[in-house]
Amino acid sequence: MDLGLSWIEAALLGLVQGLAEFLPISSSGHLALGQVLLGVETGDLTFVVIVHFGTLLAVVTEFRHLLWRLFAGFLSGDGESRRMVLHLMIGTLPAGLIGVLFEDTISQFFDSPVYVCVFLVLTGCVLFSTRFRSSSRTDVRLHDAIIIGFAQAAAILPGISRSGMTISAGLWKGLEGKEAAQFSFLLSLPIIAGATVLKVKDLVEAGGTAESALPLVVGVLVAYLSGVFAIRWLMSIVARRGIERFSYYCWAVGAVGFILFRA
Hints:
The protein has one domain. By secondary structure, it is mostly helical. It has helices at 7-22, 27-38, 46-62, 64-76, 79-101, 103-110, 113-129, 142-154, 162-172, 177-206, 210-238, 246-262. It is 78% helix and 0% strand. The chain starts with 6 loop residues before the first helix and ends with a helix. 45% of the residues are buried.
């Protein structure tokens, strides 16, 4: 399968993915716009999905101790750990179902930079709204997981930020910024892992060559390194209750892109 990317283009898109996946500015939207601006055509969502694997590794790296505690606690019968795992499973369901049922429809939005820009503006509005919320809780409850799960499902559309929607939903539900961001990052793991497995299977069946795999490897590596940086930066920002500042960036990119691509 020829993805139509050089390793340099893949590195640039991987950098965009790593930063924008965790910063609330939509990685899928920025990848879609980046492909248009670079004049590259990947053919489908293969590159987008595979390069997300780099950000999955970033989450595992940064939250490895928490993940191990949840895993060990789940096996030992710890009630709190089992509740958290259950909440993550429930929160994953909406995005998983919508992704499987409407993959072809969703793919069409990636071909329209105008739609991406409109969704970026919408993301900015959601982020800005968090300045009016109050938060005091540190425990994620079942109804929190359900609402945050549907927020993640909406972020399947390019330009709708997954981290922005899920963290904002958590903040509006009364969670402290650190807990909302932490649950958001953990919630990304099952979706990214599942989508990656499916796309790797497609690549193997398509008979990918070493030459075609190089851009994917470079993209994944750069996405991982930049993803680690972005997680650490955003965790420091949410601790100071400043996620709404990213709304101005989303509005600016969305508005400028809308003008350019509508012309």
